[in-house]
Structures are given as structure tokens and as C-alpha cells.
């Protein structure tokens, strides 16, 4: 599926990304974006609060997306298994958006404010996962740890996938990353201190 379906918001997103790449995020203005998209400034502000929102347009939807993904996983699955299945669903959706994600990452890396906003998005995602697990009856400590691990693992997987030369799918990279985590967890368990004197 194309990243850019028809519609004013998609035209504005495409125009903004093109300009951010061509001349830089800081140098790009809203009037330039709307001129490139062939739309009005008023239309821009109906869809976005400011130009930063173009890169984070779907952040507000994260809690709903997470809730829906977790709701689609069997209730019999444990917290980490539910998260793994949910992240596989998300990875499959992102598979065709590698070019867009590479462009977006390149823009964000050029601006301190955008990098901070990206970290805030990860925090929102972690909190949404935690809430989703709590609603499944998972205890708070397990929900918190699982959410933090899930966001970290997925972030590492996406970064590795974007850095490679399209040799593996995001699903394959995600599987590799979770496998590495499992190996590490076993070593951590073996090295963990016990309560015995």
C-alpha cells in the first residue's frame, strides 16, 4: 500500500518531507509547504498544529493502535508472547514503508527538538503498552518491564532494519532481535544474585 494515499493531509506530508530533505527542517516554512502541495495555509492548520506535527501526525493514535493490537491477541498468551505477536503485526504493516521511515529518520536526526519529540513518542508508546497489559490483568511490575523491553527491542529492530541493505525483512530482523534478547535474558538469569546467604 502506498504511503501517500490521496487527500490534503497526505499531500501536505509529501510536500513537507520533500522540502525538509531539500532545504532542511529549520529552513522550511508552512507557506512553502502549502505552496508545494498546492493548498492553503488554512488547510495546513486544519491538519497540523505546526510543521513538526507532520513528522508525528499519528502520535496521538498510538494508545488506540496499541489497544487494538493487544485486543487482537489471544487472552491465553502471556504478556511477552502477546507483545511479540502484536509487534509482528506492526512490523508487517511497516514493511512497505522503509523508504519513508529512512527519510523521516534522516530529518529527525538533524534537529535536537525533533529528537526529543521522538523520545517522547517512545515514552507514550511504552505507557500505552503498559496500560494495555494492565487491562489484560498483568501485574504492574511485569507490565512496566514488558512495555519498556518491547519498545527497546522494537526500536533496535527498526534501526537495524533501516541500516541494512534490504537483505532481511523487518519481521526477520525483529525475530533475530528477540532471539538475542532471549539469549541475554538466560545469561542474566544465570548471573543474577540470589537471596541465599
From TrEMBL:
Record lineage: Bacteria, Bacillati, Actinomycetota, Actinomycetes, Mycobacteriales
InterPro entries reported in the protein's UniProt record: DNA-bd_HTH_TetR-type_CS, Homeodomain-like_sf, HTH-type_TetR-like_transc_reg, HTH_TetR
Organism domain of life: Bacteria
The protein's name in its UniProt record: TetR family transcriptional regulator
Positions of the HTH tetR-type domain: 6-66
Keyword DNA-binding: yes
Organism of derivation: Mycolicibacterium aromaticivorans JS19b1 = JCM 16368
Coiled coil: none
Any single Pfam family the record assigns to this protein: TetR_N
Record feature DNA-binding region, as residue ranges: 29-48
Record's keyword terms, sorted: DNA-binding, Transcription, Transcription regulation
This protein's record includes keyword Ribonucleoprotein: no
GO MF annotation, one: DNA-binding transcription factor activity
Amino acid at each position: 500500500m502506498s504511503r501517500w494515499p490521496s487527500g490534503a493531509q497526505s499531500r501536505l506530508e509529501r510536500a513537507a518531507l520533500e522540502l525538509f530533505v531539500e532545504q532542511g527542517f529549520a529552513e522550511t516554512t508552512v507557506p512553502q509547504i502549502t505552496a508545494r502541495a498546492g493548498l492553503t495555509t488554512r488547510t495546513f492548520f486544519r491538519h497540523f498544529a505546526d510543521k513538526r506535527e507532520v513528522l508525528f501526525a499519528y502520535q496521538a493514535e498510538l494508545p488506540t493502535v496499541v489497544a487494538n493490537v493487544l485486543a487482537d491477541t489471544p487472552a491465553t498468551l502471556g504478556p511477552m508472547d502477546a507483545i511479540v505477536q502484536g509487534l509482528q503485526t506492526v512490523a508487517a504493516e511497516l514493511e512497505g514503508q522503509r523508504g519513508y521511515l529512512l527519510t523521516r529518520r534522516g530529518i529527525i536526526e538533524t534537529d535536537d527538538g525533533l529528537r526529543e519529540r521522538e523520545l517522547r513518542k517512545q515514552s507514550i508508546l511504552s505507557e500505552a503498552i503498559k496500560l494495555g497489559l494492565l487491562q489484560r490483568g498483568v501485574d504492574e511490575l511485569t507490565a512496566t518491564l514488558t512495555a519498556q523491553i518491547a519498545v527497546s527491542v522494537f526500536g533496535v529492530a527498526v534501526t537495524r532494519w533501516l541500516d541494512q541493505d534490504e537483505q532481511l525483512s523487518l519481521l526477520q530482523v525483529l525475530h533475530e532481535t528477540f532471539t538475542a534478547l532471549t539469549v541475554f535474558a538466560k545469561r542474566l538469569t544465570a548471573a543474577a544474585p540470589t537471596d541465599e546467604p
